[in-house]
Amino acid sequence: MASSFSRILSSKRKIQILSLVGGSVTAGFLLHRDHVSAGGVPVRRSYPASAEYPDLRKHNNCMASHLTPAIYAKLCDKATPNGYTLDQAIQTGVDNPGHPFIKTVGMVAGDEESYEVFADLLNPVIKERHNGYDPCTMKHPTDLDSSKIHSGNFDAKYVLSSRVRTGRSIRGLSLPPACTRAERREVERVVVEALAGLKDDLAGKYFSLTQMTDEEQQQLIDDHFLFDKPVSPLLTCAGMARDWPDARGIWHNNDKTFLIWINEEDHTRVISMEKGGNMKRVFERFCKGLKEVERLIQERGWEFMWSEKLGYILTCPSNLGTGLRAGVHVKLPRLSKDPRLNTILNNLRLQKRGTGGVDTAAVGGVFDISNLDRLGLSEVQLVQTVIDGVNYLIECEKKLEKGQDIKVPPPLKYFK
Amino acid sequence: MLNSPQIRQQGSTMPFGNTHNQMKMKYTSEQEYPDLSKHNNHMAKILTPAMYERLRSKQTPSGFTLDDVIQTGVDNPGHPFIMTVGCVAGDEETYEVFKELLDPVIEDRHGGYKPSDKHKTDLNPSNLKGGDDLDSNYVLSSRVRTGRSVRGFCLPPHCSRGERRAVEKLSIEALASLSGDLKGKYYALKNMTEAEQQQLIDDHFLFDKPVSPLLLASGMGRDWPDARGIWHNDNKTFLVWVNEEDHLRVISMQKGGNMKEVFDRFCTGLTKIETLFKERSHAFMWNEHLGYVLTCPSNLGTGLRAGVHVKLPNMSKHAKFEEVLKKLRLQKRGTGGVDTAAVGGVFDISNADRLGFSEVELVQMVVDGVKLLVEMEKKLEKGQSIDDIMPAQK
What we know:
The complex is a heterodimer. By secondary structure, chain A is of the alpha+beta class. Chain A is 34% helix and 13% strand.
């Protein structure tokens, strides 16, 4: 049944993409609702775009920076073939003005077509968020050949753990902000079936959030695998938490080094991790696992959302391209006190977070260090960047231990 | 700008993507049916797969669907002891289009109120007997609140920014015409100065962005604080909230136990506001069966909660406290409002009912009931028994 379903979907997809390409009138499916009373008079009052335009004066996010009244007027009547609208896409950015120091994205995609239908807004947002990457003119390189990685084994005195994560979306099904319960359950079904085909060091088990026992839940918490219902208003305002915990779950291999989250912020989040500093091995497993999963879903007539311009398509525009965050938990007590740390990180194209993840503080001089970039550079390039960068940071820490001074490295050349 | 209606070929403006009903019809009802196995709210008790199948292809003229109605109840399974409603209306027509679900929910929630029952509205304050002499040694403050929805506009879970702003504009215009002791001022949430904000907090007038997942899951928090505001009269005894959980929440309050005066002002103010809206060609949502139509089915009918903050340290520890409240058709809350605990033996006591009784009847119940509770408190203070003044079931 799945394969006929996907065949129907893929033929529909072709028609829809053709209609999207066919010029501004058909770009975006003009959703028509028959809401008229018996007398033929429209019952719902409607307002011009200017009356609906959000008040973004106190806002500091990428959406607010680029949503002009003109763009709003142009896009507000459009909807994707699934019925997802501009107002829905920007709701999270309207509801969360942002932080004066952290610039959030402020919008999400409800489906793959959102990136086309709302391109007039999403392209400048993508450009700003991804350092000038222009979806109209550039192509994104995908490279999951882990054999190209070198020097990926860190000094375990400093690096406590290594981790690579990304996301994947199943083509033909709406994304978490917009999906119906049936679609979400379909994502779960497709992915869980595929994962059941993984073997050897990747063989594992699925734990559905709705059916987990208390013991299983505690074990997953102790392993730091369990994800909770999102509380961040950035996510809840986008509608990703609807129907929680229906069709959400966690799959992991028996070795607990390969982990997949289902229907959290994306259809899937894929994580490879282990204690210690063997980032190369982590990335090897990552690539192997991803390719295997892709093969298994393709056998059943499904595929991942991917395009030449945007790479892997995910819910948040910040995760386009590779969707990849490769990071380590690393002890840098001396370096953490050095005022040049942020500049060093910036020049190395790295970011720091606390060990609780994004929005947490570093504890005991232990940082989560990961790549800043997601789009415009391949997986291999990004992981190598992290490896080179972390090696540099460790060298700095060693120098400071010996009382020597450190140098701020020159900024890395970027794809621009 | 906000005048002529136009046909807009637009998807609905629900934030959560539940409204693309046509696409959803590709899936079977079974595939879409929510998992309600751990749920304890009115919606979950009434909804069945067969009902879901019958209703899921429907939508109101403004595009509100069954999934929109129930989302809050799906997302909030409820509490084993408190029974939440679990559904909301997106517009006036919701109560018609989805009556198969909402009628039984209403019946359950409102003490057996039938689809054929008629609700009486009585905002004539002279029909209230007594209520001006609740002992201020015990009754610290008195308050009456209700809600009103402006006909023709979608309700907070579903309204677009344009509609919400239109409701605000109409409300500001109408309220600006109030005079005498009702003359007052509007404070838009997004334009408030720090000083104004602090004053409103100190007066206990300011409402905040909802944090309750019950409200957020239904979409009422969208676009906050756009088009939200507070109006109050100069005397600070009459207060209107604009675009919080309902289009309008109208509150009359003052310190002490003179509930009659509070209710007087309440009725006068409400009636004046309704007239001012009518002068601008807008009516409140009301019908013979459901009375005043509000967002949450629990607030239908009168939408009225008349209550007092009353000191009952002894009574509240009595074994029969709950029983007495039940007989008097009253409920208790902490002084922070619903979901808070009582502090220092001071309780918020109010009517439990909303629909099927008139405003006068409900306030009468509160007045009579609180009088009795205070009497009981006094007896217990003196070490006397209260068994001889136990009330009958109202």
